[in-house]
C-alpha cells in the first residue's frame, strides 16, 4: 500500500524542496487538493504535478468541493456543481492521476424520506460526470463524510449500487463523527469496519488516515489530528482481515493538527508516518 501526503497550493510555491521532502521521508506521492482559486481564476498546477510524476511519485486529485453540492435536491444548485467539476476535470487533460476524489454532499436538512431525494441527486451527478472521467481512464472515489447527506455509510451503498464504476475513499474518523452526531454514541474503529456494508468494503480504493478526539459531553468526535500508531495498526489489521487492503491503492495522511489543536508541522507528520 502506498502512502500519500495531503498537499495544497502552498506546496506548489516550494516545489523543489517539497519534492525532495517526499523522497527523503518515505512518501510515495501526494493527494493534491484542487479548490478555489484552482480551476477558476488559476489554472491547475499541471507542471507541478508532471514534475511529481517525473520524479517517480504518484498523485491523486481531490476535486473541488467547497460551496459545491453534488447531492443537492435543488436542480439548479446540483447542475451548477456538476458543471464546475466538469470544467475542472477537462482542464486536467494530459495528466495521469491515480484517482479523482469527490464529495457527495448537500447542506439541506430535509432530503425527503430517508434522504431519497438527495441520494438520487448524487447518483444523477455521478452519472453525468462518469463519461468524462472514464474517458480519461481514471477511477472516481467518493469520500465518506460526516455531513448530513450523502457520504454516510447508510447512504453510499445506494449510490454504489446505482453507479457500478464509482468507488470509495474510506475516512473512518468522519464516520465515527457521523455516528456520534446521529446516535450520541462512540463506536471504536474496528467495530465500525465490522459493520460496514459489504458493497462499501468491496469498493474501497483509498483510505484517509488521521487521528480523532472524542468528547462525550458534547456528543462530538473532532478529527484530522495526528494519528496514534496503535489506532492505525488496529485499523489496517482489521481492513486486512476483511480483505480490503489488497484493493487499496493508497493511504493518505490527512493530519492538520496535533492533539492540542495546534497546526501540525511536516516534521511531526513524518515522525508519525515512520512509526506505522
Task: Please describe what this structure looks like.
The chain has 276 residues and is of the alpha/beta class. It has helices at 9-12, 15-24, 46-54, 75-91, 116-135, 156-162, 172-183, 189-195, 198-203, 229-241, 266-275, and strands at residues 2-7, 29-33, 58-62, 99-102, 139-143, 166-171, 204-209, 211-215, 220-225, 250-253. The longest helix has 20 residues, at 116-135. The protein is globular and about 50 Å long.
Summarize the structure.
The chain is built from 11 helices and 10 strands. It has 276 residues and is an alpha/beta fold. The protein has a single domain (2-275), classed as TIM Barrel, CATH 3.20.20.150.
Q: pLDDT under 50 segments (min length 5)?
A: none
H-E string: EHHEHEHEHEHEHHHEEEHEH
Give the amount of beta strand, in percent: 15-25%
Strands, total number: 10
Instruction: Classify the secondary structure makeup into a structural class.
Output: alpha/beta
Spell out the blueprint of helices and strands.
Layout: E1 2-7, H1 9-12, H2 15-24, E2 29-33, H3 46-54, E3 58-62, H4 75-91, E4 99-102, H5 116-135, E5 139-143, H6 156-162, E6 166-171, H7 172-183, H8 189-195, H9 198-203, E7 204-209, E8 211-215, E9 220-225, H10 229-241, E10 250-253, H11 266-275
Parallel strand pairs: 1-2, 1-10, 2-3, 3-4, 4-5, 5-6, 6-7, 7-10
Antiparallel strand pairs: 8-9
Helix pairs in contact: 4-5, 5-6, 8-10
Amino acid at each position: 500500500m502506498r502512502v500519500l501526503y495531503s498537499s495544497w497550493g502552498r506546496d506548489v510555491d516550494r516545489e523543489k524542496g517539497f519534492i525532495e521532502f517526499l523522497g527523503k521521508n518515505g512518501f510515495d506521492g501526494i493527494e493534491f487538493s484542487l479548490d478555489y482559486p484552482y480551476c477558476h481564476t488559476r489554472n491547475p498546477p499541471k507542471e507541478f504535478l508532471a514534475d511529481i510524476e517525473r520524479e517517480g511519485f504518484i498523485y491523486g486529485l481531490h476535486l473541488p468541493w467547497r460551496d459545491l453540492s453534488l447531492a443537492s435536491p435543488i436542480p439548479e444548485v446540483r447542475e451548477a456543481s456538476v458543471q464546475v467539476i466538469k470544467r475542472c476535470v477537462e482542464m486536467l487533460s494530459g495528466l495521469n492521476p491515480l484517482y479523482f476524489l469527490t464529495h457527495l454532499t448537500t447542506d439541506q436538512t430535509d432530503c425527503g424520506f430517508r434522504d431519497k431525494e438527495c441520494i438520487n441527486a448524487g447518483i444523477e451527478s455521478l452519472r453525468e460526470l462518469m463519461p468524462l472521467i472514464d474517458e480519461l481512464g481514471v477511477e472516481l472515489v467518493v469520500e465518506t463524510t460526516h455531513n448530513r447527506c450523502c457520504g454516510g455509510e447508510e447512504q453510499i451503498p445506494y449510490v454504489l449500487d446505482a453507479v457500478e464504476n464509482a468507488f470509495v475513499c474510506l475516512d473512518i474518523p468522519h464516520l465515527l463523527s457521523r455516528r456520534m452526531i446521529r446516535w450520541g454514541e462512540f463506536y471504536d474503529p474496528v467495530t465500525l469496519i465490522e459493520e460496514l456494508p459489504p458493497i462499501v468494503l468491496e469498493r474501497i480504493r483509498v483510505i484517509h488516515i488521521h487521528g480523532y478526539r472524542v468528547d462525550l459531553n458534547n456528543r462530538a468526535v473532532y478529527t484530522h489530528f495526528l494519528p496514534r500508531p496503535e489506532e492505525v495498526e488496529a485499523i489496517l489489521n482489521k481492513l486486512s482481515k476483511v480483505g480490503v487492503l489488497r484493493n487499496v491503492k493508497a493511504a493518505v495522511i490527512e493530519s492538520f493538527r496535533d492533539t492540542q489543536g495546534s497546526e501540525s508541522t511536516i516534521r511531526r507528520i513524518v515522525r508519525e508516518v515512520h512509526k506505522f
